[in-house]
């Protein structure tokens, strides 16, 4: 829907063994994307992997802004002064 806060690519996968790393990858796509890497087989859970996201931007604050943008795009706000 081309929302202003939505990431263009919500998941970034890294093949390098030492990635993702919090200091390097937490702000991918304005902090709204998640970084995934270190995928490996696991005898108990089938697979293990590491995911890094920015807790504030992708979490509480950014998630709320993204929901508001989606609601506006879907027409949930019916106020005469809103575009």
What labels describe this entry?
alpha+beta; 83 residues
Explain what you see.
The chain is an alpha+beta fold. The chain is 29% helix and 24% strand. It has a three-stranded mixed beta sheet with strand order 1-2-3, with no helix packed on it.
What does this entry show, briefly?
The chain contains 2 helices and 3 strands. Helix content is 29%, strand content 24%.
Low-confidence regions: none
How many individual β-strands? 3
Radius of gyration: 17 Å
Spatial order of the strands in the main sheet? 1-2-3
Tally of alpha and pi helices = 2
N to C succession of SSEs: EHEEH
Strand content: 15-25%
**Biggest sheet descriptor:** 3 strands, mixed
The CA-CA distance between the termini, in Å, is 17 Å
Helix percentage range: 25-40%
Mean pLDDT comes to 90
Structural class based on helices, strands and sheet pairing: alpha+beta
From the spread of the alpha carbons, the general shape counts as elongated
Topology:
Elements: E1 11-14, H1 22-25, E2 34-42, E3 46-52, H2 55-74
Parallel strand pairs: 1-2
Antiparallel strand pairs: 2-3
């Amino acid at each position: 829907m081309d929302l202003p806060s939505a990431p263009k690519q919500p998941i970034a996968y890294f093949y390098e063994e030492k990635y993702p790393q919090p200091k390097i990858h937490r702000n991918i796509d304005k902090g709204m994307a998640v970084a995934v890497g270190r995928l490996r087989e696991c005898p108990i859970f089938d697979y293990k992997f590491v995911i890094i996201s920015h807790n504030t931007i992708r979490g509480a604050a950014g998630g709320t802004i993204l929901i508001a943008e989606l609601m506006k795009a879907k027409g949930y706000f019916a106020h005469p002064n809103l575009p």
